[in-house]
UniProtKB/TrEMBL annotation:
Gene Ontology MF: a single term: D-ribose pyranase activity
UniProt keyword annotations, A-Z: Isomerase
Reaction(s) catalysed by this chain's protein: alpha-L-fucose = beta-L-fucose; beta-D-ribopyranose = beta-D-ribofuranose
Protein name: Ribose ABC transporter
GO biological process: fucose metabolic process
InterPro entries, A to Z: RbsD-like_sf, RbsD/FucU_mutarotase, RbsD_FucU
Gene3D superfamilies: RbsD-like domain (3.40.1650.10)
Superkingdom assignment: Bacteria
Pfam families hit by this protein: RbsD_FucU
The organism's taxonomic lineage, starting at the top: Bacteria, Pseudomonadati, Pseudomonadota, Alphaproteobacteria, Hyphomicrobiales
Organism encoding this protein: Rhizobium tubonense
């Protein structure tokens, strides 16, 4: 246990959060996502897990340490619902709330078609699978920067 760090963030997840640089993307996925096969194609190459939590709980823990990239429009993205691209399921609304709270403003989740999402995930730094059992609990988050302290 460490002070000020969510106990949901295990050593492997903390390592990748620290190792990632500005512009690197991570993927948070549900239990149905082909996480292991896609994770093998990422830069990290190994699936990470935050078990027994929802996608929103995992996103909250991650975003407690990682800022989003303010230089791009798609720093936060969600997998579109197949056949209903405008639908936003409850799991995605929950993650939207977490993102807005972490960033202190509304930060839109950009929709990404299912197969395009898989390709996007393959180009990520890493994949983190959660215990989320609801469909479409799949998101990408791109790491931003923390500005130097003003003196």
């Amino acid at each position: 246990m460490l002070k000020g760090i969510s106990p949901l963030l295990n050593a492997d997840v903390l390592y990748v959060l620290k190792a990632m640089g500005h512009g690197d993307m991570l993927v948070i996925v549900d239990t149905n996502f082909p996480a292991d096969s896609i994770a093998r194609e990422t830069q990290f190459g190994t699936l990470l897990r935050i078990d027994n939590v929802t996608a929103a709980e995992a996103a909250k823990a991650i975003l407690s340490l990682m800022p989003l990239d303010s230089f791009i429009d798609d720093a936060a993205a969600r997998m579109e619902v197949v056949g209903a691209p405008l639908e936003v399921p409850a799991v995605q609304k929950e993650v939207q709330t977490v993102i807005d709270e972490a960033e202190g403003k509304h930060w839109p989740l950009v929709p990404v078609e299912r197969f395009a999402f898989y390709e996007r995930a393959k180009n990520a730094y890493c994949v983190i699978q959660t215990g989320e059992r609801r469909f479409y609990g799949c998101f990408t988050l791109t790491k931003g920067v923390i500005p130097p302290e003003m003196v």
